[in-house]
Design goal:
The structure is a single chain. It contains 6 helices and no strands. The protein is elongated, with a radius of gyration of 17 Å. The protein is mainly α. Keywords: Membrane, Transmembrane, Transmembrane helix. It comes from Nonomuraea corallina.
C-alpha cells in the first residue's frame, strides 16, 4: 500500500517537472502562451504524451491505496477519475494551433477534430475534478492545517480554471502561464496528500 501511495506522489510531481523541462527546451514552444497539452505535438510530442499516460496511471494506482490509508472512498474515487482523465488527455492529443508546432498558422481553427474535442472533455474533467478532490479532503483529513491547505487549494484551483478558460478563449498571450500556475498548485497539493497518506499507512503498520 505504501509503495502505491509513493507512486502516486511521484506521478504528481514528475508530471510538473517533465512538462516544465520539456517546455523550456522545446524549439518554437512558448511556455507563457502555449498550453501544456501542446507539448504532445511535433517530433518530441511523445515526451508529453508519455507524461500524460505514465503519471496519470501512477496517480490512479496511488488512488487505489488512498481509500484504505485515509478511510475515504469518495476521495480515492475522485482522484482515480482524475488520473484516468490525465491518461485520456494523452490518448487524445489536441490539434495543432496558435503557432505550435512551428509552421502552424498563428490562429485558432474554425473546426477541430473529434480527437481534439475528446481532449477538451478530458481536460475539463482534469481541471474540474481536482478542486473537488481538494474540497473532499477538507472533510476527510483530520489535521486542521491540512483542512485549511485543502480549502485554499480548492479555491485557488477553481479560480485558476476559470481564469485559464477565459485566457484560452481570448488567446491571451499569458494563457500558458495561467495554466501552469494552476497545475503547480494542484499537482503539488496532490503529491503531498499521497505523501501524507503514505506516512499514515507506515505509522499504522509499525
Amino acid at each position: 500500500m505504501t509503495a502505491l501511495l509513493w507512486l502516486g506522489a511521484l506521478g504528481s510531481w514528475l508530471f510538473v517537472v517533465t512538462f516544465t523541462l520539456d517546455g523550456w527546451t522545446r524549439p518554437g514552444y512558448r511556455p507563457v502562451r502555449h498550453p501544456v497539452s501542446a507539448l504532445a505535438l511535433g517530433p518530441r510530442g511523445w515526451v508529453q504524451g508519455a507524461n500524460f499516460l505514465v503519471c496519470g496511471l501512477a496517480i490512479t494506482a496511488g488512488a487505489v491505496a488512498l481509500g484504505g490509508a485515509l478511510g475515504s472512498v469518495p476521495l480515492a474515487a475522485a482522484i482515480a477519475l482524475f488520473g484516468l482523465a490525465l491518461v485520456a488527455s494523452g490518448v487524445f492529443p489536441m490539434d495543432p494551433m496558435r503557432g505550435y508546432p512551428p509552421g502552424t498558422p498563428d490562429t485558432t481553427p474554425e473546426a477541430v477534430s473529434t480527437r481534439h474535442r475528446l481532449h477538451d472533455w478530458a481536460g475539463a474533467l482534469v481541471f474540474g475534478l481536482l478542486p473537488i478532490c481538494a474540497l473532499i479532503a477538507v472533510f476527510v483529513l483530520p489535521d486542521a492545517g491540512w483542512k485549511w491547505y485543502s480549502a485554499v487549494t480548492a479555491t485557488a484551483l477553481g479560480a485558476g480554471f476559470v481564469a485559464f478558460s477565459q485566457a484560452w478563449e481570448h488567446d491571451h498571450p499569458r494563457s500558458g502561464l495561467v495554466q501552469r500556475a494552476t497545475i503547480v498548485v494542484g499537482w503539488v497539493w496532490l503529491g503531498l496528500v499521497f505523501a501524507y497518506a503514505a506516512g499514515q499507512a507506515a505509522g499504522s503498520a509499525a
